[in-house]
Amino acid sequence: MKKHQTTIIDIAKELGISKSTVSRALTGHPSVHEQTRDKVLQLANELEYQRNMFSIGLMKRASRTLGIIVPEFSRSFFPQLIIGAQERAKEAGYNLIISQSDESYETEVSNARVMLAHQVDGLLISITRETNNFDHLKLFQRKGIPIVFFNRVCDEMIVPKVIVEDYEGAFAAVEHLIARGKRKIAHLSGPESLSICKRRKAGYTAALAKHNIAFDEDLVVHYDLAINKVKFYINYFLNLKERPDAIFCINDPTAIEAIQLIKKTGLAIPGDIAVIGFSNDFASSIIEPALTTVEQPIKEMGRTATQLLLDQIDRDVANWKAPTVVLKTQLIVRDSS
């Protein structure tokens, strides 16, 4: 038999008061006498009453719920970021609906529709490697629902964004390799469509130019971030007529996979070939040799993106702002370089 869920009607009958009085007491309305409110709250607790926040949200034209869509959960970056976002949302009295798109544009579109169906007050999103059409996200704007991009952003939408110093971080990483005597530095990048890949590649090329090292197209490869494909590109680099003496990777999972593959060939890291990643994932410090990487303030990114979203929610649509917040990175030097 299905258990009966306590409603305000049950509380009202038990106390001999009206439903509206119970409702006002539960929501802290000042018109309810303190003794009555205390009785309502005590009974509600005894009967394990749970407010229907969705219904309350409809009455207030707000669900007190935010949505967040990330492209994957396979590495630690996005889970850490979600922790930061959830902390800030909770502090502000909001719930967070979390979904991941598995690097699929179609799934991202579906997830966005689910967020709309749940009437979220705002959406946080980092796009997939496949996403180049943003109609499903522009719909939020047309409906007056604020949206904030983080990490992987859409340049064509004028909304708040949170990114890190991708260019500066990449520049510092490559300049570090050059300072260690490396001159043939390869770059294993991600999809050319992603803004983070463009910025990190720009930092890579700028560092080479500063030190009068010619850019070599053969030393730059873009791939779709499917980690099982890293071996093909590492083998490509290692089989070049003039093998690179260092590899700057788009992220830590790519770099960690590269280290494991290079070690199997018998080459010494960093003596024969150095490796640098980007993000400072959990595994970066425990891989052997420990990975030199560009650290990103991941939790801070989640908190900052959420705060920007809350700022939009508190404004009229006509007063929405579209700042781009750029968070600092830091080069963490370890044994792989």
UniProtKB/TrEMBL annotation:
GO terms for molecular function: DNA-binding transcription factor activity; transcription cis-regulatory region binding. PANTHER family: HTH-TYPE TRANSCRIPTIONAL REGULATOR GALS (PTHR30146:SF109), LACI-RELATED TRANSCRIPTIONAL REPRESSOR (PTHR30146). Pfam families: LacI, Peripla_BP_1. Gene3D superfamilies: 3.40.50.2300, lambda repressor-like DNA-binding domains. InterPro entries: HTH_LacI, Lambda_DNA-bd_dom_sf, Peripla_BP/Lac1_sug-bd_dom, Peripla_BP_I. The keyword tRNA-binding does not apply. This is LacI family transcriptional regulator. The keyword Cytoplasm does not apply. Keywords: DNA-binding, Transcription, Transcription regulation. SMART domains: HTH_LACI. Residues 6-60 form the HTH lacI-type domain.
